[in-house]
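Section 4.2 – Deliverable D4.2 (structural model, holo form)

The reporting period included a commitment to supply a predicted holo structure for the target in complex with flavin-adenine dinucleotide. Inputs used:
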Amino acid sequence: MRVAVVGAGIVGACTAWALARQGVRCTLFDRRQPMCETSRASSKLLHGGLRYLETGQFRLVGKALHARTDWLELAPHLCHRLEMLLPMYRDKGRSQFVISAGIRIYDVLALGSGFPRARVLKPSEVLALQPGLSPEGLVGAWAFFDAQMDDSALGNWVVDEFCDLGGDLVTEHEVRDLAELDDYDRIVNATGPWAMQLRETMPGKPSILLDWVRGSHIVLDRICPAAMLLEVPGSSRIFFILPYQGRTLIGTTEVRQSGPNNPGPSEDEIRYLLDAHNHYMTGAVAMRCDVVEAFSGVRPLLRSADNPSEATREWAFEQTGKVLHIYGGKWTTAKLQGDDAAHRILQ
Ligand SMILES: Cc1cc2nc3c(=O)[nH]c(=O)nc-3n(C[C@H](O)[C@H](O)[C@H](O)COP(=O)(O)OP(=O)(O)OC[C@H]3O[C@@H](n4cnc5c(N)ncnc54)[C@H](O)[C@@H]3O)c2cc1C
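Output (structure tokens):
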């Protein structure tokens, strides 16, 4: 059997790798290079996604919490555990009861993953770890563990593993119509945000619809002493301030788009992230001129909620003839998604 996988983002790469491990002859196509789109523009977190508990995505969070361990075991040179602080302020944002309940559930779902349990920190301990943080009204923080990766390097490592097993990688090759790949026995459409466009080259209406939600990050050229998860002031949205490769990574936004193409971050998004950062980091305020890099990616989310923050991060498949279309998902669970896709191909 010969299989063509279109799209060398993390989902296509994991699918091709899973097929190659099963001894299937597989060719992985990308119109540019591996990991050149959404999969290199993530928040670099291998995480369960604490906030998804609020929308009842317990199954997904549980899977993702254990998937973190798989990545740490597979490629310890490209990812590591990361302690995250969740500061709590008096009379601001979610109640301490809600936060504590979420953390406890996160811990329970992570049982057996080998990650340490969360702990409570006093204000003085929080400020010792993150001295720039505003002390006003600070009542403490939860400290819990997730993991951090170099998304581009880890994704390219997956592609290398695939090639080492004899897989073919074809770059700078755009598949304009799935009929071009008719010589293959099976075809996988793993083009992430563009999956709907490629699906439209086949007859019939798609059974699943995508929502395109752009997310932007900014980078400050300064060390970030501790990773933090915080609420955007005046909203229940969560954003991150993270140490990354000796710099500070701040993200993300959620801007719904009418299509998959990535226009890059807008000035409004950059301002939004700077304001959110400065609201908390009163001892380390950043100006527009401190932003040394800004980047964005488009999330290919399954259309499931009016508010993009509440949209599911699960994935779904659609089979049309010999083509398997893959929609949605997240980086952390991409290996499970690829294994799932390969299983369907081989059934
Ligand atoms: C801002 C942001 C932050 C995120 N943070 C996290 C995080 O911290 N942790 C986490 O787990 N998840 C995170 N995610 C989600 C995760 O990044 C995505 O779910 C994942 O990267 C999607 O991968 P993909 O392979 O489906 O798509 P992509 O990475 O976009 O890959 C699609 C590939 O298909 C190729 N392609 C498209 N059309 C064609 C064609 N016609 N012919 C050939 N090739 C084609 C493209 O060139 C591209 O390489 C984040 C997403 C965003 C946007």
